Amino acid sequence: MVVNDPPSRDEAKAAEAAREAREFRNALGAFPTGVTVVTTVDADGRPVGLTCNSFASVSLNPPLVLWSLLVYSPSMNAFQNASHFTVNVLSAAQRGLARRFATRADDKFSGVAWQAGLGGAPLLEGAVANFQCRCVDRYYGGDHVIFLGAVEAYAYTGAEPLAFARGEFGTFTASRPEDAC
Length: 181
Prior knowledge:
Number of helices: 3
Largest sheet: 7 strands, antiparallel
Distance between the termini: 64 Å
Strand order of the largest sheet: 3-2-6-9-10-5-4
CATH superfamily: Electron Transport, Fmn-binding Protein, Chain A
Low-confidence stretches: none
Strand content: 35-45%
Shape: globular
């Protein structure tokens, strides 16, 4: 008969920390967000992009936005050294792009229609909105770097935006005042 040793105190703490992190992530998932693909170009001029839902407005005057990236992301070097980035707000029809840019694929831009924006940062065709930003600052926040961007150009359409909550994609449904309680 093989008897397994009980978990050590350190193993138990690590397991509890992992459970707490998962619960915290689940709680955050209750807050619906828009879905974006943030883009830039690396030092060799190659496009870089990733799916991001940490995008937020900061200021109207001057126009500032922010987003955050995991410190250990393979894209960190490109974004840390870029003068510009673009936040592309995805449409409800772009779920496939959201999934594609959430992977570690080598060429996420293969077959994707885009054009170079300010600083070369890609503007994705079909996006609901895009915000072309000059990176003005970076802040460390726990396991992420927060990028602050000065919006130098933007565009938007009336297309339906893609939403994300509880680990699932969806769409936004407006509530009319007459629907209110």
